Amino acid sequence: MSGHDSKYFSTTKKGEIPELKEELNSQYKDKRKDAVKKVIAAMTVGKDVSSLFTDVVNCMQTENLELKKLVYLYLINYAKSQPDLAILAVNTFVKDSQDPNPLIRALAVRTMGCIRVDKITEYLCDPLQRCLKDDDPYVRKTAAICVAKLYDINAELVEDRGFLESLKDLISDNNPMVVANAVAALAEIQENSTRPIFEITSHTLSKLLTALNECTEWGQVFILDALSRYKAADAREAENIVERVTPRLQHANCAVVLSAVKMILQQMELITSTDVVRNLCKKMAPPLVTLLSAEPEIQYVALRNINLIVQRRPTILAHEIKVFFCKYNDPIYVKMEKLEIMIKLASDRNIDQVLLEFKEYATEVDVDFVRKAVRAIGRCAIKLERAAERCISVLLELIKIKVNYVVQEAIIVIKDIFRRYPNTYESIIATLCESLDTLDEPEAKASMIWIIGEYAERIDNADELLESFLESFPEEPPQVQLQLLTATVKLFLKKPTEGPQQMIQVVLNNATVETDNPDLRDRAYIYWRLLSTDPEAAKDVVLAEKPVISDDSNQLDPSLLDELLANIATLSSVYHKPPDTFVTRVKPATQRTEDDEYPDGNETGYAESPANAADGGASPPTSSSSVPYGAARQPAPAPAAPAPVAPVPDLLGDLIGLDNNAIVPADQHATSSGPPLPILLPASTGQGLQISAQLARQDGQIFYSLQFENNSQITLDGFMIQFNKNSFGLAAAGSLQVPPLAPGASRRTLLPMVLFQNMSAGPPSSLLQVAVKNNQQPVWYFNDKILLHVFFTDDGRMERTSFLETWRSLPDSNEVLKEFPGIMVSSAEATLDRLAATNMFFIAKRKHANQDVFYFSAKIPRGIPFLIELTTVIGNPGVKCAIKTPNPEMAPLFFEAIETLLKA
Amino acid sequence: MPVAASAIYFLNLRGDVLINRLYRDDVGGNMVDAFRMHIMQTKELGTCPVRQIGGCSFFYMRISNVYIVIVVSSNANVACAFKFVVEAVALFKSYFGGAFDEDAIRNNFVLIYELLDEIMDFGYPQNLSPEILKLYITQEGVRSPFSSKPSDKPVPNATLQVTGAVGWRREGLVYKKNEVFLDIVESVNLLMSSKGSVLRCDVTGKILMKCFLSGMPDLKLGLNDKIGLEKESQLKSRPTKSGKTIELDDVTFHQCVNLTRFNSEKTVSFVPPDGEFELMKYRITEGVNLPFRVLPTIKELGRTRMEVNVKVKSVFGAKMFALGVVIKIPVPKQTAKTSFQVTSGRAKYNAAIDCLVWKIRKFPGQTEPTLSAEVELISTMAEKKSWTRPPIQMEFQVPMFTASGLRVRFLKVWEKSGYNTVEWVRYITKAGSYEVRC
């Protein structure tokens, strides 16, 4: 029954709109219907047909259901741009919602909910109320979803009109589809609300589990997803739940299966009986394997989830490794994920088979896949000690094929194997050296140079080999330069003969005088000084024994894994990132209740820590490739953590290799002077104690910079500080370190702060109330102002394209504008520098008439971006600032911050 | 959150919007530009079906010459979204009568809009059963009861159907002759090493059913699977007749099958939808009867010559035969000349896929035809890299043969009117991905 609608697309005559207008007003029904179809066709291909609004709406009063649906579709698309005219449609909607035909009643309510115009929303309430109690289940199931729509537009209205209660009543409806939709709506409302609205009690639980048997496949997904939040009281209840959910594993719909797996895994945490757990693992394996015969896209989702599942419960698929063998025609994204899981499941029992597969893959065509296969061999070697030798022999066979990128990749992983099993497999170095000339990738080169330096005493011609690299030293990428520097020093210390001595002169000269790279220069100076003051110490430092590595590159942090497993089947489980890192729409303060397991203070630490910081410099680059959306939630390594007890040279080198911020003198935190801080508690109020303070950002962390001045006659001690609830949940991360203050003494300190600890409800405010006490005086209270810019994180930089995308993707209602008539920008450069210093990143600039328009991006924790547009005439007073952000309620705070920044 | 989509787009290969439907307000109307710019026009296309751009995530699938793109901004249920797309395409196909491509979309855009409105509400998938939707969404549009006579009331009935417990079957069906057709279709997936050892082998089977039954029949299906038989003998407390039993690794069922009952009693009982549907899928890895063995020997004689010998052995019964057998033997890109000798069928060199293609239309059991070919290569300096040998691939169909050994033991039909039914069963085994490394 194929149609012939394509004719509606083919009107290209001039004056199309007037023509359509005429047809829409035709007295013939058929002609009107055709005209509406043409309008919809035009709308589909992106033409603006909003000017026909009145004419189309006039066709709404029709007996023809198809025509009515088309008009409704038009309304959904254009009502927002013509809110005043949209009101014309209300009467018809209200009338339709009382139509004897349930399809029309449902259609009216469904469509009204999609029209986000305030005036229409008011009229929606009465019909919705009626439809929630309609006799026809089709109408009720549509009304249930409509409550969620309305909540999204106007939450207050939903609560005031008692729709939530009606919705809860629908959970007990006798029709399973109504139940399922009501559950979906309630779950969504709960997710966007601060109050507990939809609490799953054991009573609702059993009711919903019963409904599970009867509702449609999609309804089962809604219910299972909602129930997976339920925490069973004890092991017995958990077992009961699992028993009733397990049959779902046999469903043909992959979404039902994954949601059932999610729920079972959640409940399994509570089950203590090992027999039950083993049995469940056995039951879950076949359905998971079956997912791999679905469409490749679904396979991909399944594989990303299986990756998580095997990290928590490796036994489930321990015997199924064969199903993850790649098929020749699998899409690349499926192959890559399969490889990752094969590495996870590789064991002493199956390694021979696995290696044969990897070897086979390493000869395929797709370069990325081949590389990953080679790396996989290396990772298996690091993981399975007993198989390491077999892995190496496979790698050597691959090197013999002499395919350039295979060789390079192999060398990178062999370097890692050396680091895992030092002094075991050096016999193969000779073979590696044969491929020296073919290396052209920095990482491979750096790895090879590291190997040469590390084993210089066993390679007869190590000096010649290194020398061949030295010629091109200035042109090499920094990664290779750093390795060359260290390797040459190692060589010199191991073979202090004439050749190496000359080489080291050249290298040190190149790495200090000739270079602009501070990392390289600093490291070179350190070596230089070490070598010139105490060569023995240099030996201890540079040639010290290195810690053995392990393959944990793709293991997720347990608490992150927990969170991801609770999100099986969702985007979060595919990205391997917690939802709040990619969902920009942040709700006011609800997260407290859900996120309790993860101290929110970590949040600032999410920013991808330079994972290789601890070994990216002198020690070789780690090769362990991380999954595309790698584990982000690892606490940033504290720069000074590996205290040089037995001085590890490479770490020392790195310490300096870190970004410049890290070079702050360690004692600065305690005593630094610095610009004066605003006085918040004057001595007159504080019985002689004067406190000045300000929030500051340093090294990517937020500190409260405080100065205490004791102008009283007594020594003050036992200082403590407390912050009242505030919009950002700022709280002290440690205790206040202030020694007793003698009369006349003053002390400055930096108090590290964390975010999202004690959030206050309500609209964001910049008020920060502080209380300070000491053993001698009463408690002092004072108010400070939170300046938003201290929160700007250093990952707020946006590419121009993503800036444009984000700008466009945000609705116009999120744009807020403010003018600062009193502020003057006298120098663009100076201002840009100042803004950049506070992590407000410059993106682009353009001229508009005589004005300069600047674009910036900034980001505050929880990933809330700000897109900023500044318009001004350089040298003249008056700045206009427009911002766009998913959280426009932050705008006033932002403007306060920008005003301070521009005035400074 | 089980939301599956904020918006859905149908694009042609150039990136033009064929149809779009916004279900939620949280994604901008022009997100498709982002998709075009960041995915379609870059090499990224095909590297990953789930992508994040700006604040939105995109899931996409290509079906014939159409991209179906779903956009969300929340932590949506991806599995649900992809499954929704698959099911929606099946639904459209059943409406258009087969093809789903750019032309079909343009020709049916009004219908598709209507369906999109019905099958998803605010991003939540609703009923997607073609059987039920066809009751009230038709090409012509359903008349409103404003005009129609009060006696003519197919519509209110439809709404109960949509939401009913048996949401896949219409009431009041009448057939003169009550018939059921069962097709057991198995695909054998094989990966064999060049030395002839089986690296991976499994059978994915499906039971397709075509029902022409009156009323609301209850059906029960019995197979020769181990667990089902054991349970049955327990219940009847007598041993079942000996015979081959097979072990199913996994089964998944159409939503009409009562899963709870399957779990407790191991019986497949259901009220079938009318017409054609896929009743169940299963997978077997143990005890697979491979219909063919392929024994390749490929010798590279110097840089310009290659000798290819392939022997294919059919190991099913001599009275049976396979149809449409195609064996694709890969050769290097720089192949210049080929010459063949085959003992059965025809062979030729296909330069477009760099393969020798050997076709045998009818392939009897217990035979072993061979192909021997000589391949001459152009010697090029550029091809330093040794030839990475892709696997030999094979296609075939063997009627009345199941690689798993699965048999239908019975199909019982109960209906309150007590009519007699005729059941027809067919078996066929096809090649899934049947690969032999060489």
From TrEMBL, chain A:
Predominant localisation class: membrane
Protein's membrane topology: Peripheral membrane protein
InterPro entries noted in UniProt: AP_beta (IPR026739), AP_complex_bsu_1_2_4 (IPR016342), ARM-like (IPR011989), ARM-type_fold (IPR016024), B-adaptin_app_sub_C (IPR015151), Clathrin/coatomer_adapt-like_N (IPR002553), Clathrin_a/b/g-adaptin_app_Ig (IPR008152), Clathrin_app_Ig-like_sf (IPR013041)
The keyword Membrane belongs to this UniProt entry's keyword annotation: yes
Subcellular location: Cytoplasmic vesicle, Clathrin-coated vesicle membrane; Golgi apparatus, trans-Golgi network
Composition skew (Pro residues), residue ranges: 636-645
Residues covered by the Clathrin adaptor alpha/beta/gamma-adaptin appendage Ig-like subdomain domain: 669-783
Keywords linked to the UniProt accession: Cytoplasmic vesicle, Golgi apparatus, Membrane, Protein transport, Transport
UniProt-listed Pfam families: Adaptin_N (PF01602), Alpha_adaptinC2 (PF02883), B2-adapt-app_C (PF09066)
Database matches in PANTHER family: ADAPTOR COMPLEX SUBUNIT BETA FAMILY MEMBER
Function, in words: Subunit of clathrin-associated adaptor protein complex that plays a role in protein sorting in the late-Golgi/trans-Golgi network (TGN) and/or endosomes. The AP complexes mediate both the recruitment of clathrin to membranes and the recognition of sorting signals within the cytosolic tails of transmembrane cargo molecules.
Annotated protein name in UniProt: Beta-adaptin-like protein
Species lineage: Eukaryota, Viridiplantae, Streptophyta, Embryophyta, Tracheophyta
Automatic annotation (TrEMBL), chain B:
Any one Gene Ontology BP term: endocytosis
InterPro entries given in the database record: Adaptor_comp_med_subunit, AP2_Mu_C_sf, AP2_Mu_N, Clathrin_mu, Clathrin_mu_CS, Longin-like_dom_sf, MHD, Mu2_C
Segments forming domain MHD: 177-437
Repeat keyword on record: no
Coiled-coil residue windows: none
Cellular compartment(s): Cell membrane; Membrane, Coated pit
One Gene Ontology CC term in the entry: plasma membrane
Keywords, alphabetical: Cell membrane, Coated pit, Endocytosis, Membrane, Protein transport, Transport
Membrane topology: Peripheral membrane protein
UniProt-listed Pfam families: Adap_comp_sub
Gene3D superfamilies (alphabetical): 3.30.450.60, Mu homology domain, subdomain B (2.60.40.1170)
PANTHER family: AP COMPLEX SUBUNIT MU
Family: Belongs to the adaptor complexes medium subunit family.
Protein's UniProt name: Clathrin adaptor complexes medium subunit family protein isoform 1
Species: Theobroma cacao
Lineage summary: Eukaryota, Viridiplantae, Streptophyta, Embryophyta, Tracheophyta
